Amino acid sequence: MSSIFTLPTTATERDIDAQKHVNNTVYLRWVQDVAVAHWRSLAPAPARDEIGWVVRRHEIDYRAPSFPGDAILLNTWVGKATRLTFERFTEIRREGDGALLCQAKTLWVPVDPVSGRPIRVPPDVRKIFSVNEATE
């Protein structure tokens, strides 16, 4: 596993649904938010400009509810990183008691930000994010 990147956030009233807890779509937004923050924090400037990302697949397991005012920790890391895909894992936890609220596995595909076509991620960039770099 590569280094865990953590982004804190807080559940707000706008995040709450009719069941009076954080809506499932908010967890999905948080999965994307922490992935983008992780990429921006580590990727070299040229890579940030030359590589965009699209999601090919999300797998999400919701474990426990979250409520307005909860301090939340968004934790992410990259698993297998190939030239054509990055496997990313996310855990969302309540900060106060450490309760696991949500787990996600996402397959991200690098794209040219102008054309939207898939591109390859250079080995030096893959290595920054994953100890499980693959040669595919």
Description:
This protein has 136 residues and is α+β, with helices and mostly antiparallel strands. It is elongated and about 45 Å long. The longest helix is centred in the N-terminal third of the chain and has 19 residues, at 24-42. Strand 4 (86-94) and strand 5 (100-111) form a beta hairpin. The chain has three helices and six strands.
Q: H/E element string?
A: EHHEEEEHE
Poorly predicted runs are none
Helical/strand content category: alpha+beta
In angstroms, what is the radius of gyration? 16 Å
**Percentage of helical residues?**
10-25%
Kindly state the number of beta strands: 6
Query: Between the first and last Cα atoms, what is the distance in angstroms?
Result: 18 Å
Summarize the main sheet: 6 strands, mixed
Tally of contiguous helical segments = 3
- Could you tell me the strand content as a percent range? 35-45%
Q: What overall geometry do the principal axes of the alpha carbons give?
A: elongated
Mean pLDDT: 93
